[in-house]
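Model: You mentioned two targets. I'll fold them one after the other.
Researcher: Yes, keep them separate.
Model: Target one:
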Amino acid sequence: MSYSRLAGALFVTLLAILALAGCGSSDVVATFDGGQVHRAELDKQFKLQRLLIAPQYPDTPQNRLEVLQQYIVMHDILDQKAKQEGITVSDKELADTVAQYRQQLIQYVYGNADALNKKMAELGLQDNDLQALARDDILAQKYFAKHLSVSDEEIQAYYKDHPADYTIAKVAHILVKTKQEAEQVEARILKGESFAQIAKEVSLDPSKDQGGELPEGPLSQWVGPFQDAAMKLPIGQISDPVQTQFGWHILRVDSRRVEPLSQVKDQVKNKVMQMKEQQWFNQAKQDAHITLEDSALKQAAAGGP
């Protein structure tokens, strides 16, 4: 063998050794039944989440742990199950889904294709990374469509048990620091002073500029005590002081209506399906017997920062 060929062979061997070293046990962040995840894989998945969810998605051990668990279940575990059942993804499905990703990212996050492409370059991401993610999403949709369903009885039960989700109200409120201040506000209103004027004068909430009026929406968007008061308070009357983690409120409900099930049936069905998918995910995560090898991830799993 000539010197040049020998040198070339040694160089290739060296590269192989370095590659193996780079994927050694110290680089494994987690193992699970059937496989393991290397740090480079987790880094790539975290960058994808930063691209898709929010560019400012904080790089914390807790967030990385969530991404890791999602990746193991929705990529490795689900891929195995899909293969066993002959579930596949066509080239057209893949291309259409990637195009949808890009369109939504441009519309809602980046504004134009150049900005999106620049961000992908900054993160070291390529189109094949989006394709891999799209493939996982399509497989998940097909698998869940085959194995999970929602009955009319389940839809009716959820609708009945979650009235705040489908009760739409127009509410005004005045927020102050103490119960005593709230009682003083209540007394002033009962004496005939303008609710809106008092809100502009003393309320700590940004809605004070609108006389305390909040945008119409479902009661479920508000915290528990506020939500309960808005559900029970007679239209047009003011509440006694209501305490939340934000302070003390005086409420007035200007309108309140319940959306009939016939109008929100699809919305309720989607919500129940999401719950079933989450239950499936939690069980699959448990069955995978994930073992963390990274100290920061272990701390996050134990409830640390």
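Model: Target two:
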Amino acid sequence: MAPSSWFTLLTALSAITIGVRAVPAPHTLTIRQDAIAPLPSAEIAAFKPYTWFASTAYCDPSSTKAWNCGENCDANPTFEPVNSGGDGNETQFWYVGYDPTLNVVIVGHQGTDGSQIAPPLIDLDIPLVPLDDELFPGVDPSVRVHQGFAGTQSRSAPGVIAAVEEALSLYPTRNVTVVGHSLGAAIALLDAVYLPLHLPSDVNVRYVGYASPRVGNQAWANYVDSLHMDITRINNKQDPVPVLPPIEFFGYHHASGEVHIRNDDVWVSCPGQDNPSDQCSTGAVNLTNFNATQHPGPYDGVTMQC
């Protein structure tokens, strides 16, 4: 899906920052180039079911509830849906279900639909705000996140947690993986932090996000890292969305966990937060060097769409 709202921000910033490169988080400056490692082909292939699940989140809730959404649903044929929701406008589509092949509960969140009015406005609602203390009890108020992302996550949270609890009661697993692309990846990361605060301690939550923008400030990135959760952010080549909102203007930072697709068959693991290497998104992409057509993919052959 074309991230038109992000391009509005890119255009405005480019006009005043020609040639500016993103400034990495201070503690990442000492990361060595040789710490960056290519992923073996088997590890790349293991992400593919989750890539399809992220793409599926762009499909209407009626089709994900029935699991008859065409190619996306066919790619994970054993999936058993539990519930779905959202209106695709103020609340992005979401769905929850169980995959017996992977033995995991899946939570999927839709990315930006540029044909709707609200999603681009959500993307551009960039003030940093504290987390809702009812949804995120006990989190320090210095932890601040994107106001638009927090708002839409809060609207889907009641339905999502109810569906996850139902799935965990119905199926023999204690594993939950939250997925999404673009705006959906941002919502999914908030969910990955939110869910463990409300689920039993024996439930393991994992995050796999694609083309996620930055979600919060340095305190947020540090807090996410402190949870020692399994987090993977997959970014495609010169896609500009993962370097937005810019560090130097708004104080946003990524948590650790980036995997950068350098070309279709070369994926590299980028340690640390906002790794400055030119093999990783923060070092390779800036306001004058990007390719917006790479935002929807492909990710190992999968393009994010329904």
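Researcher: Noted. Anything on target two?
Model: The domain at 4-294 is CATH 3.40.50.1820 (Rossmann fold).
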